[in-house]
Amino acid sequence: QKEVEQNSGPLSVPEGAIASLNCTYSDRVSQSFFWYRQYSGKSPELIMSIYSNGDKEDGRFTAQLNKASQYVSLLIRDSQPSDSATYLCAVKRGGGSNYKLTFGKGTLLTVNP
Amino acid sequence: DAGITQSPRHKVTETGTPVTLRCHQTENHRYMYWYRQDPGHGLRLIHYSYGVKDTDKGEVSDGYSVSRSKTEDFLLTLESATSSQTSVYFCAISEFDYEQYFGPGTRLTVT
């Protein structure tokens, strides 16, 4: 079983719609969760981090975490063509000396004008 | 890019030659990481550092070595480059062992 799984997409939504990106993880001791956005040919950019169950909102972005279901999602409200990118989910195991993130392969989002 | 630079940004080299990639940060962050990104595999950790002269292996470390002699610089060396090491290499930094910020990347082609 892959450690962090995302649908590869492409996920296509019309401008102004809500885009919903999903991620599941296999390691139950995972404690920290991150969403990165990566434009084609560019480096990953951190857009959200979430550490506890529930929702976390930042502007048009909402991250949702459900540790019991081992599921984390990213909602993008009022999607814009500039949101078209690959979104990477990353998971960090517990604290201590484990500094490593495990990344999913990413979901390609296309927002159509 | 959070005060991170990578050099060179592009490099073409021949099989069997040594290659060194440099990551430089101005944030004074303790942790530094090297990743490679390949189609179908996503981002994979090569090596990381948790302090000056303190490094450890990631999931794809074979064929790579690293060094960190000062806080701001983290070097990745391919001792004898192979075609399978053609990839985009990203450096990342973090202040604590949480959020990581990425540099602009180095595109390496081994012919």
Would you kindly provide a written description of the structure presented here, covering whatever features stand out?
With 113 residues, chain A is mainly beta. Chain A contains no helices and eleven strands. Chain A has strands at residues 4-5, 11-14, 19-25, 32-38, 45-50, 54-58, 61-66, 71-76, 85-92, 101-103, 107-112. In chain A, β4 and β5 (45-50) form a beta hairpin. In chain A, 34% of the residues are buried. The mean pLDDT of chain A is 92. With 111 residues, chain B is mainly beta. Chain B is built from no helices and eleven strands. Chain B has strands spanning 4-7, 10-13, 19-25, 31-38, 42-51, 54-57, 64-70, 73-78, 87-94, 101-102, 106-110. In chain B, the strands form two sheets. In chain B, strands 2, 4, 5, 6, 9, 10 and 11 form a seven-stranded mixed β-sheet that branches. In chain B, strands 1-3-8-7 form a four-stranded antiparallel β-sheet, with no helix packed on it. Chain B is globular and about 35 Å long. The termini of chain B are far apart. The mean pLDDT of chain B is 94. The interface between A and B is medium-sized, with 22 and 23 residues.
Shape of chain A: globular
Rounded average pLDDT of chain A:
92
- What structural class do you assign from the helix and strand content of chain A? mainly beta
Describe the main β-sheet of chain A briefly: 6 strands, mixed
Shape of chain B: globular
Largest sheet of chain B: 7 strands, mixed
* Amount of beta strand of chain A: over 45%
CA-atom Rg of chain B in angstroms: 13 Å
**Helix/strand order of chain A:** EEEEEEEEEEE
Order of helices and strands of chain B: EEEEEEEEEEE
The most extensive contact between chains is: A-B, 22 and 23 residues
Q: What is the count of DSSP helices of chain B, taking H or I runs of 4+ residues?
A: 0
For this entry, what is the oligomeric state of its chains? heterodimer
Portion in helices of chain A: under 10%
What is the helix content of chain B? Answer: under 10%
